[in-house]
Design a protein that fits this description.
Layout lengths: L5 H18 L6 H4 L4 H10 L2 H4 L16 H5 L6 H11 L8 H12 L11
Length: 122
């Protein structure tokens, strides 16, 4: 019988704790209030750092090939305001959004790019 070593237990514990930390993050107000302004989010995406890597408008091509266009991100299955907030925090740990409304408005803009007929470019 193969035993479970301390390395496997440690790896499992790290994964569980990381998942718990994400789950315990406060929910963004946009997920519950719907008061964010998508127009301000579009401006923020263009003027802050997002557009330096990502395509931030519908049908755009990202400057950085490793950064998916916002349209690709929001048209994945089961994307919501809450999942976008968590995804942004996980992918861009170095970025701060102060006030929180900046992130809410960015997410509101991103959600305007959802399209049921969307097809990822090949």
């Amino acid at each position: 019988m193969v035993g479970v070593g301390s390395r496997e237990i440690h790896s499992f514990a790290v994964i569980v704790l990381a998942g718990a930390a994400v789950a315990c993050q406060p929910m963004s107000p946009i997920a519950t209030s719907g008061t964010a302004k998508p127009g301000r989010g579009a401006w923020f995406a263009q003027e802050y750092t997002c557009a330096g890597c990502h395509a931030v408008e519908r049908g755009g091509v990202s400057r950085d090939r490793s950064a998916p266009p916002f349209g690709d991100i929001v048209n994945r299955e089961e994307v919501t305001a809450s999942t976008l907030v968590a995804s942004i925090h996980n992918a861009h740990k170095e970025m701060t959004f102060d006030p929180q409304s900046m992130l809410d408005e960015l997410v509101a803009h991103m959600l305007t790019l959802q399209d049921p007929k969307y097809r990822q470019p090949s």
